[in-house]
Amino acid sequence: MDTGAPQAGSIAARDLNLPSIALGSLVGEVQVKRQLTALVPGTYRSEVSMPGFNVQVEPKALNFTKAGQTREVTLTISNAGAPTGKFSTGTLTWKGPRTVSSPLAVRPVDAQIAPSFSFSSTAGNGSGTMELVSGSDNPITVGVEGLAPLSQTAITKTPGGFEPVNNEHNALLQVAVPEGASFARMGIQAQSEDVDWDMVVYAPNGSGGLTATQVATAAASEFLDLESPRAGTYYIVANLYSTPDNGPASASVQSAAFTGDAGNLTVEPNPIVARNGTATSATLSWTGLTAGAHVARLSLGENGIRTWVNVQVGAPGAAAPAAGPSISLAQAVPAA
What global pTM score does this model have? Predict the structure, then answer.
């Protein structure tokens, strides 16, 4: 993370010198650094209570000859039987002239993996490699949703205020989500990373009206994921919030609907077997795809580790596959 002081450089977020230590996605062995400053001089010895984990502290004892002295310690943490996907807690205690403790919270996960992988093929059959780091000695099963056709519409706007209309700052589109969809994704894929698009999605609420959800982060692109979405017409407003020079920017407004495993994407091996902390890979193979963009969501293990797979068949910008959800410009948001 950026420290805000260029002369100090940057540090890993886990090494920010807080009294507590938290790791939300532990795979393999991780080192965490802390600096301790004495209020009372003397020798302090470390004790760790953290069932299910191997925690080594170096140095194990700290000697302070006067108040105000600072010493650095390194904790090396690895999973030794704790369940994946759940936080376990414990304490690091220093005993000496005074006793002080730091809370520990660690969540091992099944795998560490990139948020997405993108591939292309000239025809509907192809393959690619997915790399990951195993977080478990146990087999990691990979669940597949998709590949599903990805519908997309190109837009170019200039920065300005949000309005649920089509104008120079906003694009208003409507998307039809079919019956039986188990999952849907709507989003704005920016063409460059130095801009800021924001999004509002108006979804049918079952009472004849629409419920608005705003997705506005500092990221260039925005996405909204909907589990078991209600069938019907959704309205997406893509607002260009800012650009570096206040000039125009382009993006693609996208939509995809899933009905589980489409049977056109396989992962080999599945399950993936590798020792905890070991880098490994799997081969993704797709078959029978038509020209255009396709997307799948993969789930690794049982604890919500996910990644996206994007496959472009044919030239970029090819028409959306016919089976994708229809997406088109809209005139207005009903009752908005």
Answer: 0.85
